[in-house]
Amino acid sequence: MTLHRISVLLADQQVMQQDPRAQKIVLFGYLAIFAVIMWLMVFGPQRKKAKEQDLMLKALRAGDKIVTTSGILGLVLSIKDKSISIRSADAKLEILKSAVAEVTERGGDSGETKS
Predict the structure, then answer these.
(1) What's this model's pTM, rounded to 2 decimal places?
(2) pLDDT over 90 percentage in the chain
(3) Smallest Cα–Cα separation from 49: which of 106, 101, 108, 113?
(4) What is the average pLDDT across 90-109?
(5) Partners of 106 in the β-ladder
(6) How many alpha carbons fall within 13 Å on the CB side of residue 62?
(7) Do 27 and 18 contact (CB within 8 A), yes or no?
(8) Which residue, 105, 108, 100, 107, is CA-closest to 72?
(9) Which residues lie closer than 8 Å to 42 by C-beta, 6 or more apart?
(10) Sign (positive/negative) of CA torsion 106, 78, 89, 73?
(11) Nearest-5° angle of CA 51, CA 96, CA 87?
(12) Which of these, 93, 64, 92, 94, lies nearest to 76 by C-alpha position?
């Protein structure tokens, strides 16, 4: 009887031990799932924000009031390929388009009709 019990205990231990290759596959599966979740959480919103910024810069017109990334408030005078001329208080500045943080007020000939 005791020999039978020992063989049952040994059989249970063999069943409980997992294949090391299977453990590695499961680990790599978890890492892949984690990488996909991180990709969606980090790069998804970043791409969306970049698209919104690009659309805002394409819709920028002379007469719009803007805020730059450094906090300067200005009125758009003219737009070039990579830069914008703005007037802020008594100063006329030329800034890069990428320095525009937001358009606070649409002005000039924006194509809107007022009712």
Answers:
(1) 0.60
(2) 69
(3) 101
(4) 90
(5) none
(6) 5
(7) no
(8) 100
(9) none
(10) positive
(11) 115
(12) 64
What's the burial of 58, exposed, middle or buried (CB within 10 Å: 0-12/13-18/19+)? exposed
Q: Which residue, 62, 74, 81, is CA-closest to 100? A: 74
Burial 20-38 (b: 16+ CB within 10 A, else e): eeeeeeeeeeeeeeeeeee
Neighbours of 74 (CB within 10 A): 22
- Cα atoms found within 13 Å of the Cα of residue 52, Cβ hemisphere only: 9
Closest by CA to 106, choosing from 59, 71, 73, is 59
Radius of gyration of the chain (CA): 31
Residue 90 phi, psi dihedral angles, 5° rounding: -105, 5
Provide the residue type at 101 as one letter. A
| Structure-token pair, residue 22 | 């299977």
